[in-house]
Amino acid sequence: MPSAALIDLFRLEQEYFHNDRSLKSEDEVRYASLLNRTQNLINLESTLAATTVELDLARADAKLAAIDQEGQSEQQQRIKSLEARLKEQTAQVQQARAAATKDAANYRKEVFESGKIQFIESVHADQVRDRYQELIDAPADGKAAPRAKLISTMDEQIKTARFLEEKKQTDMKFKRADLDVARSDFDCGSARERAAPSKTSCSVASSRSMPR
After folding, report:
1. What tens digit of pLDDT does each residue of 19-28 get?
2. What is the DSSP letter of 138?
3. Other CB atoms closer than 10 Å to residue 142's CB: what's the count?
4. What would the DSSP string read from start to end of 139-208?
5. Distance between alpha carbon 13 and the CA centroid of its chain, in Å?
6. CA-only gyration radius of the chain, Å
7. How many independent structural domains does the chain possess?
8. CA atoms within 13 A on the CB side of 160
9. 27-61, pLDDT tens digit by residue?
10. How far apart (Å, rounded) are the C-alpha atoms in residues 153 and 94?
11. What's 116's domain CATH number?
12. Does the reported pTM lie above 0.85?
């Protein structure tokens, strides 16, 4: 199950992009810095999950495998080693979660709640919050359905975000192309005034700036 810190960061991302047109450049830089710091949490969460699975498998092998005394001793040693590693990684993850949660709270307080911008609530962020709460409230033997619902909601939002980002990049590409054409036409006009170059050379220069 994803941690509350990761869900909170996902919600913050939805809130950020929902209000990005109102943000100042320093707010954007600050958010990028926050993302760089929280990358460590994502790496630690992945490592902790891998160690947890490895330990579960080692314990299962120790119970089911018919091995000799020497093999049993080696298996128990491996389990102890994994338990020590898991304990250390758990402490690191808890520290990183606390730091990420604090960073997200500070960003909301100093950017979204400070009156610097007219903050607009994100329906997508609220959906993720509600789905996660449903997962938390579900009994241990009934978490499969709310977990699938949460993952589906997050996947859909990620797909939408990627589509919008790609559209934004495409629009920016054509705006830059239009600017290149305008700049080329301006340069040709200035050059025409100075040296009266041929109309054909200017047309070629403009055509080369058009997107393909």
Report:
1. 988 888 999 9
2. S
3. 11
4. -GGG-HHHHHHHHHHHHHHHHHHHHHHHHHHHHHHHHHHHHHHHHHHHHHHHHHHHH---HHHHHHHHHH
5. 7
6. 27
7. 1
8. 11
9. 999 999 998 888 899 999 999 999 999 999 988 88
10. 26
11. 1.10.287
12. no
